[in-house]
Amino acid sequence: MTKENKTLKVCILGAKGYPYVYGGYDTMVKELGERLQKKGVDVRVYCHRSLFKEKPSVVNGIKLIYMPAVETKILTQLTHSFFSMIHACFSDVDVIFVVNSANGPFGLISRIFRKPTAINVDGLEWLRPKWKGFGSKYFFWASKMATKFYDQIINDSDEMRRIYIELFKAESKVIAYGANPSFDSDPTKLQKWNLPKESYYLIVGRLVPDNNADLIIAGFIQSDTKRKLVIVGDVPYQDSYAEGLKSMQDERLLFTGYVTDPEELKALYHNCFAYFHGHEYGGTNPAMLKAMGYGCAILALDTPFNQEMLQNGKHGWYFSKNPVSVSALISKAENNPEEIEGLRLTAREGLTQKYNWDFVTEQYLEVFKELKKKGKVK
To answer: Where is the Glycosyltransferase subfamily 4-like N-terminal domain (predicted)?
Structure first.
């Protein structure tokens, strides 16, 4: 712990809070916050008040601030971030770190208060099918505003950096999302679903259109495989797309819903024959990193982001955005089990240093130190 770290005060806002772990941002807050705290940084995390029954002021050395929100589907996240940003600007923090490009406009507040800021803008939210119409326009505008108001834009992949230069003429620093590789799991965790080792393909992710579970399921149904397709995930609301998926008829399909036990999820990854990744928009994807860290043979949708993560085919195979391509890839996998085993054995090698949480934390720490030193850099 350096004296410089000890005097550095950083707050994090824009996620659900800590130690709440549900999505990618929440995981990042946990992994990054805990490591920064151990390095002597004064870390403060803004939490959604309504999500926490118990509200301790400190957990694992991280200071927690519980802020309200206007609790509606559209306004919850934005109003929570708005209130958190105002509170942070009146505090004595040195640097405000924001996640989620939806919070781009709130950089105007911190700019007025002359508080140094960084924002992790994540992926191409404005292209996701769930944000049609106004939602799509808002995310594009908010992402553009982030480039105007925040002192440091952070993207998690080289492809996202390129896109921000192309669309917004804005430079950003690339700091990838981290991974936690694991070699062991408890196979008895799979007994509840009666799944022997390598008897199934796996999908993990929210049941939303841009994750393309419908495409993968359609291609799987067309295939001749005797293996099952296990679909892990759901959406926390009534949704015709998700219900349509779950109504598809094939005895080889198994919908588990959410799997909240991390040991069960790890066992599902570890013991699958192959993992299907249909995520279409965004940079470094946490589910893909889990698949790599858990030694899966990865079958991914052919996108620039997935190409980057799998090093252009070194650590996975690709399918095009149609069921025929999925079905053909399944046939290839079934007919080449030794090559699938080879993908499993080398998957973790794809987790280069940039996906190491300790390395990720060091990069963020350097950003925060520079922002504190320079004050406003724009």
So the answer is: 22-176
How many whole angstroms separate alpha carbon 369 and alpha carbon 175?
Answer: 15
Q: Are 291 and 317 in contact (CB under 8 A)?
A: no
> Which amino acid, residue 126?
W
Q: In which residue ranges of the chain is CATH 3.40.50.2000 found?
A: 3-178+356-374, 187-353
**Is residue 155 predicted with pLDDT exceeding 80?**
yes
Distances (CA, A) of 370 to 143, 148, 171: 23, 19, 16
The first and second tokens of residue 307, run together, are 């190409």
Q: Is the pTM of this model over 0.85?
A: yes
| Residue with token string 């089990």 | 337
Q: Give the largest Cα separation in the chain, rounded.
A: 63
Classify residue 61 by its DSSP letter. Answer: T
As separate numbers, helices (DSSP H) first and strands (DSSP E) second, the chain gives 14, 14
pLDDT, one tens digit per residue, over 184-213 is: 999 999 999 999 999 999 999 889 898 999
Cβ-based neighbours of 144, under 8 Å, separated by 6 or more: 104, 167, 168
CA-CA distance, 319 to 280, in Å (whole number)? 12
CATH of domain 3-178+356-374: 3.40.50.2000
Instruction: Give the closest residue to 246 by CA, choosing from 279, 217, 220.
Output: 217
State the burial class of residue 262 (Cβ atoms within 10 Å of its Cβ: 0-12, 13-18, 19+): exposed
Q: Which amino acid is at 348?
A: R
